[in-house]
Write a structure and sequence with these properties.
171 residues, eight-stranded mixed beta sheet, alpha+beta
């Protein structure tokens, strides 16, 4: 669903447009970026996945964003907020390699939380593979706590990752 831009100190999060679908898919299917995502590896990506953005601007079930650096306009990654039952929203994020280890992921998620609170959310979850040290550290840094543990299968593979479901209540 299209919403107003979310601005952080260095980023602008823009509602994903159908025309950006190829940019997102190519990014998500990069071998290094894709490692801890539930998304399939490039060779297993089907037509539905490759064309995920068709109709995205009218889809009311979630808020997908593409992040750009405010100053340079460079593509910095993607993120999303998915309302769950009640006032809890699930957050997802993926940072472009050129922006790793510079605080952009933290900034991106903080922006989603602030915007989500404005939209009425009072709790947020993040799902992260346990061995994804950067994502686990980000969640803890922002005050998320492990609500439960589980696992997920990487689509199109036999790879199973133990994961944490983190939760942050912001009442």
């Amino acid at each position: 669903m299209l919403v107003d831009d979310i601005r952080t100190e260095r980023l602008v999060l823009r509602s994903t447009r159908e025309e950006w679908g190829g940019l997102c898919v190519d990014f998500w299917l990069d071998g290094e970026i894709n490692k801890y995502l539930s998304d399939p590896p490039r060779e297993k990506a089907g037509e539905k996945y490759l064309h995920f953005a068709e109709g995205i601007e009218r889809d009311p079930s979630w808020y997908p964003f593409v992040a750009f650096h405010q100053e340079t306009g460079a593509f910095a990654g993607t993120c999303s907020a998915v309302p769950q039952q009640g006032d809890c929203w699930d957050l997802g994020y993926c940072i472009h390699k050129s922006f790793w280890r510079q605080g952009y992921g933290t900034e991106m998620v903080r922006g989603l939380i602030a915007w989500g609170r404005h939209m009425g959310a009072h709790a947020f979850t993040i799902d992260a593979a346990q061995e994804n040290a950067a994502s686990v550290a980000l969640a803890k840094k922002l005050g998320f706590r492990v609500e439960r543990e589980g696992s997920f299968r990487k689509s199109g593979t036999d790879i199973i990752y133990p994961n944490y479901i983190f939760r942050l209540d912001v009442l």
